[in-house]
Amino acid sequence: MDAPTLNALLHAAGFTQALFLALYFWKGRRQPGNLYESLLLLNIALTIAFGYLYGSHKILNYPHLARFAFSFMAILGPLLFLSVRARERADNRLQWSDLSLWIVPIAITLYLMPFHLSPVETKLQYLREDLEQIHFDCVVILYCALLNNLVAISLSIARMHRAAARILRQFQAIDADEARSERRPASEPQSDSSDAASQSPMAAAAGERGNFWFHATPLAMIIGAGTLSALDPNLLNSGLFSGIAAILIVIRSYLLLFRSTGDDTGADADALYPPAARYQKALLSEDFVGAQGAKIQAYLLEEQPYLEPDFQLGDIARHLGLSTVQTSQVINRHFQKSFLQLARSERVAAALELLRSRPASSTVLDIALESGFNSKSSFNSAFKQITGATPSDWRRQNAQA
Question: What is the CATH number of the domain that holds 90?
């Protein structure tokens, strides 16, 4: 197989993959981020097509398409940013701040308008000159597009890293919460630190390191390609940066596709595909969390299950008809507390009411047992942690008041 044929096949393979991925995400364009992902992949497909036309000099057969590639290359980073942010916020709406990343593509397109409107003979002459020696204005355009894309893609990867870190922290807390709930009822003492990092520091550190390197690697590749392109105009014109960026974006799109084909929970967090991948499919939508959180509030208010010493996470899960992982996630996201923290806060609130209404002859132990605690020591610890005073001190202070 000769070099031109191999080159054509490679470009055709890239174009076909990007196009089919674009159609897939377009089909689900109502989901946050999918519309921008589809447009991004379509843009990559067109950029690949232009790259083949210029590399094979076949652009001379289609002079009316000349220099359109600059506009498409310039929106690579901004479209990625929109896709990432839309998934992170579960919202496709644009913001005024987005204009900052679109100033360069718009300026490039406006600058090229006179050329696009020029006669075919002028375009052909320009193309012949450009294929021999790239024009200065083309170099300036490429540098501007490179800088804009570099900033936009770097911001996108930073957002993806932050989203993955949030997922890790969230599910480390869920894991720790579940483990403690299974080991003991919610009335027993709890350590001041409720995150998973304190419960399993080695596992937490491994997850954080994996997340860092998972996103630092593509960022380093992007910065490296951008630096090499900036130092050598020939590499800049060859499309090295756009090619590396396109490959990483297509890989990300495949991972998003893989996640979505097995995900029916309405997950809206985004990352390249973080080390917390085993948790991705357990993510719940904001609407679902809000609805289930309201059910938990009603359950606690009406049935007061926390007054039972053996109250556990599984009791709420059975009431909702959810798994303990889903229930723990709802509690963490809706109440901004772990299950143990929620149970203790409800019990302390009940104890405060009893301390106000009961005569002084009622002992602290009586109040503790009626509030759902199984010992005076666990009651004192939880009460002081929340109110800043022991039950006896609180009762004495309020009696004096």
Answer: 1.20.1070
